[in-house]
Amino acid sequence: xxxxxxxxxxxxxxxxxxxxxxxxxxxxxxxxxxxxxxxxxxxxxxxxxxxxxxxxxxxxxxxxxxxxxxxxxxxxxxxxxxxxxxxxxxxxxxxxxxxxxxxxxxxxxxxxxxxxxxxxxxxxxxxxxxxxxxxxxxxxxxxxxxxxxxxxxxxxxxxx
Length: 160
Known about the structure:
The chain has one domain (3-159). Strands 3-2-4-1-5 form a 5-stranded parallel beta sheet, sandwiched between helices. It starts with a strand and ends with a strand. By secondary structure, the protein is of the alpha/beta class. Helix 3 (72-85) packs antiparallel against helix 4 and helix 4 crosses helix 6 (140-151). It has helices spanning 14-23, 48-57, 72-85, 97-108, 113-120, 140-151; strands at residues 3-7, 28-31, 61-64, 126-130, 156-159. It is built from 6 helices and 5 strands.
C-alpha cells in the first residue's frame, strides 16, 4: 500500500519542513512544480539542486514529475482569477474553477497511473506531492491528490 501526502513550503522554516517529512516517514518526494525554484532567500532550501542534496542526505528519493505541473497557460487562468478578486498568491485559500478545469484537462485527462508508479519505483511507500503554496486547497497538488484517490485503490491522502 502506498500513502500519498502533500506539502507546500510557504509558512515552514527549513528545519520544520524537513522535520515534517521525516516525521511522516516520507521515502519518495515527488516535485510537481514546473519551475523548481523559489525567489528570495527564505525558501531557497527548496530550490531544486539544494533540495535534492538535502533529500539525498535524508535517504528520500527525489522525482520531478513534470506531467503533473500546470503549464504557464493554465497558471495564467489562476492569475486572471486572482487579479479579478484582488487575491495575493501566497494568501490564496482556494483555486478558481477555470484553473481547476484547465488543470484537469491538461494534466489529468490523460494521466497514466502505471507510468506514475513506474517513475516512483517499487520502494515508494510514503510519497509526498510537493509544490509551494501553504494551503493545499490553493494548490494544484490537492487536485492531483484527489485524482489519485479517485483512480487508485487503497489510497490514503494526508496534507502535511
